[in-house]
Structure formats: structure tokens, C-alpha cells
Amino acid sequence: MADFNQNGNITTLHNLRTRSADDLAQELNAFSSTRKISLILPCLYSELEGEAMPHILSELSKVSYLHRIIIGLDRADEQQFRHAKEFFKGLNQNHIVIWNDSPRMLELEKRLEKMGLAPAEQGKGKNVWASLGYLIGCADSSVMAIHDCDILTYDREMLARLVYPVTNPDFPYQVAKGYYPRIGGDKLNGRVTRLLVSPLLIALKRVIGDRDYLDYLRSFRYPLSGEFAMRTAILPDLRIPSDWGLEIGVLSEAWRNLAPKAVCQVEISDAYDHKHQKLSADDAEAGLSRMSTDICKAIFRKLAADGTIFTPNVFRTLKATYYRSALDLLESYYNDAKMNGLTIDRHSEERSIELFAENIMRAGQIFIDNPHETPFIPTWNRVHSADPSFLPDMHAAARADDEEYV
Fold this sequence. Notes:
Layout: E1 11-13, H1 21-31, E2 37-44, H2 52-60, E3 66-74, H3 78-87, E4 94-99, H4 103-115, H5 124-138, E5 143-146, H6 156-167, E6 175-179, E7 183-184, E8 187-188, H7 191-208, H8 212-218, E9 228-231, E10 240-241, H9 246-257, E11 263-267, H10 287-305, H11 312-339, H12 346-369, E12 376-377, H13 380-386, H14 390-404
Parallel strand pairs: 1-11, 2-3, 2-5, 3-4, 6-11
Antiparallel strand pairs: 5-9, 6-9, 7-8, 10-12
Helix pairs in contact: 1-6, 5-14, 7-10, 7-11, 9-10, 10-12, 11-12
């Protein structure tokens, strides 16, 4: 995507193919002498057995500017945790595997439950939140980056481009969001962004009128990417959603806490592919069906917090407007794919649109029935206020697990 267009809302940092990855990494090495950079990898144990993670590990082992890597490990028993520690021995950086299901961590979770501060559900949001807590406890990094652990097309240049905007001391950015084209084999992917988020934002603007927040979200080329970097000073006050609204939730937090000039998006890859979720049309609690509902709720909650009034009639109108907008965009995507030698299954895409339209109504009904629903995990500042010893205890538990299970 070699262009230089700016949308006027947030800065877009392009890859104009005029600078080598090695040159970028060399400058990051210089920055990292005074601005330490840490990477968080939220992963499931099953991802260690996939084809993506060994390659990611190989690429990361060649990165010299990283101060620390924190691996948040979910759905692992003791034997699998031991294997994970062995698996990540190939990293050359200071690193730790945090076993989120360890007896020590489960005891800490009970403490949170007694205070009413425990995450509402298991998942990536909780994993990221716990890893952020460990990083805050380390108190030695200026920059934090996160990326997914199932990227089949991973290259270490992706990380360099992701962290550069928030690491360069001459830049004003506090948050950098990665973007890329979702291409796998001969297919155009990224269904939820293309067929839900983009047409939903168009429909919302038509139904409820102009909102700065909608223009802000529409400025991001890939709002659902799992790749972002931040200055660590903003982490203690960051509210992390525990459901599939994580990516939209983080962008919403940046909108709430920062000026637009402090947020940017950066092109990190020419082609990006990772594992694909099933549509799960018959199971509202799984796959893209659950994801689409959570994303809609996240957007509705933010708009309501800014004063938008939602009623059943509004959601009915929104569904109809979304459906027409999505079909129009599908035609554009189909033609774009065809011109570039890629394929799109029109029937499958329209089935997705039909499901997403139903889930807009479902998310709206849930929102109306449960206006006080708060899927956000409490900020680390709030946890510290409620229990000043919790962060040090969690940090000590992670270190104790690391030392005991050798």
C-alpha cells in the first residue's frame, strides 16, 4: 500500500519502501539505550504447537533492541507450562512465561474476586491485562508492544515498524496501531473488518449523524488489528475489555485519554495472514458470531457514554442501513480482489453480512436490557488503590512459578 495519503484525523505512517529494515532496527537500538522496549505475547498453549509460533520465535531471537519479552500463557497445565518454558529458551532477550493458570495465579484471582475486581471472563483481554500488570510492576520500560502469536507471515520488520513511532523521542505519539492488507493464499480475508466494522460505522453516521468518535474509528485502516504499541506511562489508567471488544476498546481508551495528535497508525506489513475464526452461525457464543456481537456492544457503549440515545427503533433502522451499506462495500471488495487476482466467495460473504446484521440487533437488545453491563477489567491504578500489595504479590508469584517449574 505505497501511498502517502493522510486522513486528517490521525497520522498515518506509511511504508514507502525507501528504508531498509536493518536501518530501522539500527536506529531503534540507539533509542532503546534510553527508552527500554518490552514486548507482550498473549498466547494459548495450543499456539506453541502451530506453525506460526516457531517462526515468530526465530524472528524475535534476532531482535537486539528489545529489553524484555513477557509471554502470557493461557490454557496450560503444569507439564505444558514446563514445555512452554523450554520452548521459549530460544529467545535471546530477558523473558518470562507467565502461567496464568498456576495455583499461585488462581489464588491471586480469588483475591480480586473478593474485592469485586476480577476480570469477567477468561480470554485474550484478561491475558493482556495480567501481562500489563507484570510489566507495570517491572517499572523499567518506556515502550510496550503487543502482537498476536498466530501470524503466519511474521517478519521482525513488523515489530520494528510498530514500535518506531512511540519510541522515537522526536515523535509525539503515545499509541501506534498497526495496519496491513489481510491476504492469505489467493483470498482477501479480514471479514469482520470489511463486512462488519466498516459498513457499521458508515451506517451509524447515517442513522445517528456526525460524531467525532465515528470519524476517529473510520480513520483506522484496520481497527481490529491485534498489533499496537504504547508509551508505558498510560498503562496504569488503561481500561481493558475482557471480551472480543479488546481492539476497539483500546482505540476507544486512546480516544478518551489522549489528543488525536498522540495517536497514529503505521503500516507494518505488505501481506498478513493468521488463523481464521469460524463464522459459527449456529452458535452465538463462538467464533465470528460472538466476536461481532461483542464489537457492536463496544461501539454502542462508547457512543452512549458520549451522549447518543439508543432505542429499539434506532437499532432496527441501523440494521437495515448497515445491510445495504455492507452489500455496497462487498461489491467494491469483490472488484478490488478480482483486479488483484484474488478470490472472494460472494455467497459466503453475504451469509456473513446476514449474520452480522442479526447480531447488530442482538447486541442492541443486550445493550438495552443490560445498560449497566461493564465488561471492562478495572485499571491497574484502581487495583493498586484497593490493594497496594497486589501488584508486588503478582510479580512475585510469576517469578516464583518461573523458578519452581524448571
